[in-house]
């Protein structure tokens, strides 16, 4: 008789399981949000690198464009020197932006930690139901 009173009823076990499952799901949502915020911050930082690279290419190019164009104008027609200098700076800016895009593509958008814990929770839930 003591053993029967010490064991909880099936209904109580399922109620506890439902409660713990709800808590677990809420915790997983919080974890997923936290992980996605961290990934978004990384992606935003990479976006800043792209923007800075593009801005530096433009600003540096503006300052040097005039001097190089005028210097090359001594050797070739003014239009040809402007074309050459413009092409060189556009290529440099494109290379910096390309590096930023490559870095941005390496950000994994999938919340891996959350996926792992969800699998663990599924296994735990399966074990709890099997008891």
Structural class based on helices, strands and sheet pairing = mainly alpha
Helix coverage percent = over 70%
| Low-confidence runs of at least 5 consecutive residues | none
Instruction: Return the string of H and E elements.
Output: HHHH
Report the C-alpha radius of gyration, rounded. 30 Å
How many discrete structural domains? 1
**Which sheet architecture does the biggest sheet show?**
none
Describe the oligomeric state of these chains in a short phrase.
single chain
Strand content: under 5%
Q: What form results from the Cα inertia axes?
A: rod-shaped
Mean pLDDT, nearest integer? 84
What's the end-to-end separation, in Å?
21 Å
Total strands: the figure is 0
- Tally of alpha and pi helices: 4
What characteristics describe this protein?
131 residues, mainly alpha
Kindly describe this structure.
The protein has 131 residues and is mostly helical. The chain has one domain. It is built from 4 helices and no strands. It has helices at residues 2-6, 10-72, 78-105, 112-130. The chain is rod-shaped and about 100 Å long. It starts with a helix and ends with a helix.
């Amino acid at each position: 008789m003591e053993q029967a009173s010490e064991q909880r009823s099936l209904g109580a076990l399922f109620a506890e399981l439902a409660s713990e499952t709800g808590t677990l799901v809420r915790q997983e949502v919080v974890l997923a949000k936290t992980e996605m915020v961290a990934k978004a911050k990384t992606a935003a930082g990479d976006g800043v690198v792209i923007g800075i690279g593009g801005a530096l290419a433009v600003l540096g190019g503006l300052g040097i464009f005039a001097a190089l164009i005028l210097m090359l104008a001594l050797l070739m027609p003014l239009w040809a020197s402007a074309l050459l200098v413009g092409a060189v700076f556009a290529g440099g800016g494109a290379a910096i932006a390309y590096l930023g895009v490559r870095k941005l593509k390496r950000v994994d958008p999938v919340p891996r930690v959350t996926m792992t814990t969800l699998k663990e929770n599924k296994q735990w839930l399966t074990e709890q139901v099997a008891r």
